[in-house]
Write a structure and sequence with these properties.
The protein is α/β, with parallel strands linked by helices. It contains 8 helices and 10 strands. The termini are far apart.
């Protein structure tokens, strides 16, 4: 693949007259852990839902691995993992049934071992019904299913919501490990401290527009200057 792994050009989305995002331009290189930060309602989830072909843009375009997110979504999704902000999987299944469904869908060769390893890491009870799980445990299910097929790109929308501090630490260590193996990570959050902990570059979005694109080290230096 030549060029950026995510390439967003002049992307806009309006819901009637209401603004979603306006003229977003963003390039993310293969192998990055890239932060996407802004307050709730800034347009983070709108951008991600367009990338995942869950909603259509009003204008502009987006490509993942050189493929158009609308026309080539099936190919894209076979190589992308996604954790939505609202973790609500197939609630009628138990956890193991749902994850087995996922490994069959992605045709994961070592699927059962992958389920076992990731579930143990996140202390996830495979026999519980998804409908009976707390928000934090549902988020764990989302994390595990997003990683089962070893995606080239992992797109995370507020991934730590509901996780206790210990599980957040486990999650961040796993992200760093997967990144070292070559996985690109697009990490969306409204919490600056966790983005600073894991990311090298960050785009700051406010009221539907990217207002700043910065290396994390430079962002820290600016914060320190403000504090002095």
């Amino acid at each position: 693949m030549s060029g950026p792994i995510i390439d967003i050009t002049d992307l806009s989305k309006f819901y009637g007259t209401a603004r979603g995002i306006e003229h977003i331009n963003l390039e993310i290189a293969e192998g990055e852990i890239f932060g996407f930060i802004g307050p709730n309602g800034a347009g983070k989830s709108t951008t991600i839902r367009i990338l995942m072909n869950m909603i259509f843009p009003t204008g502009g375009s987006a490509r993942i691995m050189g493929m158009d997110v609308i026309r080539e979504t099936k190919k894209i999704k076979s190589q992308v993992g996604y954790i939505p902000s609202d973790a609500c999987a197939y609630s009628s299944m138990d956890v193991h049934e749902f994850l087995e469904y996922c490994i069959r869908f992605y045709k994961v060769a070592n699927g059962e071992q992958r389920i076992s390893d990731l579930s143990e890491m996140f202390e996830l009870d495979l026999n519980r019904k998804i409908s009976d799980l707390s928000m934090g445990n549902r988020k764990k299910v989302s994390i595990v299913q997003s990683l089962l097929h070893g995606p080239k790109l992992l797109i995370l929308d507020e991934p730590t919501t509901g996780l206790d501090p210990l599980m957040q630490s486990v999650f961040f260590e796993l992200l760093r490990s997967e990144n070292k193996k070559g996985m690109t990570i697009f990490f969306s959050s409204h919490i600056l401290s966790e983005v600073q902990m894991i990311c090298k570059r960050v785009a700051i979005i406010k009221e539907g527009k990217i207002i700043q694109l910065e290396d994390i080290d430079n962002l820290r230096k600016k914060q320190l200057k403000k504090g002095t």
